[in-house]
Design brief:
The chain is an alpha/beta fold and 200 residues long. It contains 5 helices and 7 strands. A 7-stranded mixed β-sheet has the order 2-3-4-1-5-6-7, with helices on both faces. α4 links the parallel β6 and β7.
Length: 200
């Protein structure tokens, strides 16, 4: 039987998968969801205020004027029988309580990293490692940001060898699609490995 088709050849409901997009403040999560979503993305952005200045570190992202306070939501159809729902998490520490709700039922995640502020992705990497949620690290290639070898980035964020690390451009639809396909493939591989361990 062909995946996504019934035995009579009629289309069936597509498989829907939930993917999280996480990372530090200003790393490009909202941009990534918006670049690839086939529907108008749901955004919960608010203007940065003077009151938030002491806790919102904008060094390196001085041009940022808004922040996600709950989540971003988008959808992309990778194939006729495979649809991804994307949930962008808020980046600031005071909104991290949302992560547990958003991660419920997630197949996997993208952790976006910015080489100018690599330490901002540590919390997301740690979060998914502790919960055994498969994830891929996407190094968002900002204009003017220095490029480093993959091994140097891996070492800087203490990333396990089995976790994929890819360069991407959160503004570019095709680049983001490649990252999302990588998340699905990594999650499927991780699930197969867990099943194999359970049966041996």
């Amino acid at each position: 039987m062909e995946f996504g088709r019934s035995e009579r050849g009629k289309p069936v409901e597509p498989v829907t998968l939930k993917i999280l997009v996480a990372g530090g403040f200003g790393v490009g999560k909202t941009t990534l969801v918006g670049a690839v979503s086939e529907i108008r993305p749901l955004r919960t952005e608010e203007l940065l205020t003077e009151a938030g200045r002491p806790v919102d570190d904008t060094s390196g992202v001085e041009g940022k004027h808004t922040t996600t306070v709950a989540m971003d939501f988008g959808r992309i159809t990778l194939r006729e029988d495979l649809v991804l729902y994307l949930f962008g998490t808020p980046g600031q520490e005071r909104f991290w309580f949302m992560w547990d709700e958003l991660s419920e039922g997630a197949l996997g995640a993208v952790v976006l990293a910015d080489t100018r502020r690599l330490e901002d992705c540590f919390a997301a990497v740690d979060y998914f490692e502790r919960r055994s949620i498969p994830f891929v690290v996407g190094v968002n290639c900002f204009e003017g940001a220095s490029r480093y070898p993959d091994d140097a980035v891996r070492e800087a964020i203490d990333l396990d060898d089995h976790v994929p690390l890819v360069l991407c451009d959160a503004r570019d639809r095709e680049s983001v699609k490649e990252v999302l396909v990588g998340v699905v493939q990594h999650a499927m591989t991780s699930a197969a490995e867990r099943r194999q361990k359970a049966t041996t």
